[in-house]
Amino acid sequence: MKSTRALMVMLASLLLGLIAVAVAGKWIVDQTRIDASTILVAAHDIDVGTRLNYDMLRRTDWPSGSLPHGSFQDFSQLENRVLKSHLVRGEPVLESKLAPVGTSGGLSGVVAEGKRAITVRVNDVIGVAGFALPGNYVDILVNAQDHDRKPFSKIVLEQILVLAVAQDVGRDDTKPKVVTAVTLEVTPEEAETLDLARSIGALSLALRNQVDQDQVETRGRRVPDLLNLTIAPEPVVKTEEKKVIYRPRAPRDESIVVIRGLHQSEAKITKGQ
C-alpha cells in the first residue's frame, strides 16, 4: 500500500515537471518571437559585382534590439542591386555593401565614386607570385633609365587597391592565382602616373599589409646605392674662346763668310732689305 502511494507521488511529480518544462519552453519561444525581426541574409557566398536575385537570399530571424543599420526585410528592395563587397553565407545584406541604385553588374559596380579602374600586364614575378588578390593593397614600382641612360628603381604609387586579377573580382579566395593582368583602382591623377610609368620602364607590384596606412617618401635607388658606392662629382670644365694673335717676326741678321786667298772676312746681311 505504501509503495503504491509512493509510486503515484513520483509519477505525479514527474508529470508536473514535464508540464512545467513545456510551459517554460513555450514561454521562451513566444518571447523570442516577440523580440525578433526578419531580415535578409546571403544564402551562400556571393562575389563582388554580382547582381542580386531571390535565389541568392533568404530570410532569418534577428533580435529587434540589434538590427544592423541598413538591413533589408523585403526582397523587392534588393531586386537587381549590385554588390560592391563580398558576402559570406548568413551575412546580412546591408546598404553599405551595395552599389548605387541603377548600377550595372560587373567591375563597373565595384569601382568607387571618383576612382578609375586601370589594368596592367604582369607575370608570376611582377604579380607577387599570384598573391596580389582582389581586395589587397599594393605599391607600384617602376624600373627604368634616366636621361643619362642610367638605371633606377622608384616607388611611384602607394596603397593601390586590387580590384580584380584577370577577370576574377572575387575576394574570398586566399589561394595564389598566377595571371597575366591585374586591375587596379586609382584616382585620375594616379592613372596618368601609372600609364606614364609603364611606358618608360617595367612595373612591379609590392604587396602591403591590409592595415598599413603609412605613406613612405623614397628617393629611389640607383646602381651606386645598390653597390654602396660613392661616385665623385665630375669636374666642370669651362671652355673659353681662345684668340690667336699673329705677330710678324723681327728681322734677323745673318752673316756670310768671304774667303779671298789667305784672307777671310765676314759680311752681315739683314732680311727685308
Envelope shape = rod-shaped
Measured distance between first and last alpha carbons: 179 Å
Helix coverage percent: 10-25%
The count of strands amounts to 10
Gyration radius over CA: 44 Å
Put simply, the count of helices is: 3
Mean pLDDT, as a whole number? 78
Query: What is the helix/strand order?
Result: HEEEEEEHEEHEE
Output the structural class: alpha+beta
Major sheet summary line:
6 strands, antiparallel
Q: What's the structural domain tally?
A: 3
Describe this structure in a few short sentences.
The protein is an alpha+beta fold and 273 residues long. It has 3 helices and 10 strands; from the N terminus they run H-E-E-E-E-E-E-H-E-E-H-E-E.
Explain what the structure shows.
By secondary structure, the protein is α+β, with helices and mostly antiparallel strands. It has three domains: 2-35; 37-104, Type Iii Antifreeze Protein Isoform Hplc 12 (Alpha-Beta Complex), CATH 3.90.1210; 111-227. The chain is built from three helices and ten strands. Strands 3, 4, 5, 6, 7 and 8 form a six-stranded antiparallel sheet that branches. The protein has a two-stranded antiparallel sheet with strand order 1-2. Strands 9-10 form a two-stranded antiparallel sheet. A hairpin with a 5-residue loop joins strand 4 (137-145) and strand 5 (151-165). The longest helix has 34 residues, at 2-35. The protein is rod-shaped.
